[in-house]
Specification:
The protein has 15 helices and 14 strands. With about 400 residues, it is α/β, with parallel strands linked by helices. The protein has an eight-stranded mixed sheet with strand order 3-4-2-1-5-6-7-8, with helices on both faces. A six-stranded parallel sheet has the order 11-10-9-12-13-14, sandwiched between helices.
Length: about 400
């Protein structure tokens, strides 16, 4: 039998550091194991601004095989700052170069595309909509909602236009994959049929990320032996509101054994570094993203991990880093509203504490609670690990996509 040809369109793929990179990498490698013929159209690694684009990215196009998956890498304008015109150029260059790269791919039987259309609209139009190839639209953020909440756009005309464009792709998709019930409800309120929406959470490779001893090579390198580490690892952007971490660090400055560690890159990092310097916070350390193979060591450093969102950000889904924290066996402090998906997950799994966003005193109090209750840290970390293995492992997500793809291909 001819193998089903799957084309995946996403700007981030291993060895990139972006939050969606490990999700798509795991999915594509698993689909390859299910005997699909998988091709990925992606950008050159660019998410870590300190290592912006590697040598190969000076070319417009590069092809490779990574763990059995055919990867077509294309030029993408890597931005170091979140300036609007630069972000638009980032999206435009990927759309154009990815569309050109599709000429090197076989005609697919089905396409999986990373929403929003800012990322994948043009290549999706060319590879799926015009030739009438079925596609699954994978929604990790709902646009224009997220842009409105972050204050990026305020014009009602522009909001309406972006909403109409997204609806164009919703209407023509074979299926829409969303991260949570909250996302599904959001799309249904926008008129998308419930039958067209499948909930597949952003799961984690629980064999790759697993509990490890705290004292490891990275711990020694960063001189964290004997320290109680409050860890934030991931995108350091404006929506995370990580100023709360600095304010809590200031409140706990006299606790010499407690140190706050931020690992990652993002538009807000330089601002936070300047703030920490101005506040004379000797208990706050910043590090860049680490190589993928060292990610489990990063989480192992933590005594407790932070998931943070600004007050005006409505979390209709669970940030993917949450599952990685749970897989590592570390407890969570989430600075989110009580009616969010992540708050409900923490309550169900009993893997951590929730405090109100932008309340540094409450965060400091939660940190002290974990600092003085080692047995609670261990218990909640174990609860999280057990829960994520059962409900949110990589295998669970991959099998759901396998059955979804089969159902679509078989009815075409």
């Amino acid at each position: 039998m001819t193998r089903t040809k799957v084309l995946v369109i996403t700007p981030q793929y291993a060895p990139d550091f972006g939050p969606s990179a490990p999700i798509y990498t795991a999915l594509c490698e698993d689909l390859q194991k299910f005997d699909y013929d998988v091709t990925v159209i992606t950008g050159f690694p660019h998410y870590n601004s300190l290592q912006a684009q590697p040598q190969t990215s000076r070319k417009f196009y590069h092809e490779e095989i990574l763990n059995g998956v055919r990867i077509l890498r294309t030029y993408i304008y890597a931005v170091l700052k979140s300036v609007l015109w630069q972000r638009l150029l980032y999206h435009a260059t990927y759309n154009i170069s990815a569309t050109v790269a599709t000429l090197q791919a076989k005609k697919p039987d089905i396409v999986l595309a990373d929403a929003p259309t800012l990322w994948s609209g043009l290549p999706l139009l060319v590879t799926a909509i015009l030739p009438r190839v079925p596609f699954i639209y994978i929604v990790h953020d709902i646009y224009p909602d997220v842009l409105v909440r972050l204050g990026v756009i305020t014009s009602p005309v522009l909001v309406n236009m972006i909403g109409r464009i997204e609806h164009f792709y919703y209407d023509r998709s074979a299926q829409i994959s969303v991260l949570s019930d909250g996302f599904r409800e959001n799309l249904m309120q926008k008129g998308v049929s419930q039958n067209k929406i499948t909930v597949i959470p952003a799961c984690v490779d629980v064999e790759f990320i697993h509990p490890l001893l705290k004292v490891n090579d990275l711990c020694k390198k960063w001189r964290l032996e004997g320290k109680n580490v409050v860890l934030y690892a991931g995108n350091i952007g404006f929506s995370q509101g990580l100023e709360i971490m600095l304010d809590a660090a200031q409140l706990l400055i006299d606790h010499s054994n407690i140190v706050f560690v931020l690992v990652g890159e993002g538009a807000a990092k330089s601002t936070l570094e300047s703030m920490a310097e101005d506040m004379h916070l000797s208990n706050v350390l910043f590090f860049s993203f680490q190589p993928r193979e060292d990610v489990p060591l990063v989480y192992a450093l933590a005594d407790v991990c932070l998931v943070s969102l600004r007050r005006n950000i409505v979390a209709e889904s669970v940030p993917s880093k949450t599952y990685s924290i749970m897989a590592s066996g570390r407890p969570i402090i989430a600075t989110v509203h009580g009616d969010t998906e992540i708050a409900q997950l923490i309550q169900r799994s009993r893997c951590g504490l929730r405090v109100e966003p932008e309340n540094p005193a409450a965060l400091a109090q939660a940190i002290i609670y974990f600092y003085t209750n080692a047995s609670v840290r261990v218990e909640m970390g174990k609860n999280g690990r057990d829960y994520v293995v059962e409900h949110y492992s990589r295998r669970v997500a991959s099998e759901k996509y396998f059955h979804l793809i089969q159902s679509i291909v078989c009815r075409e």
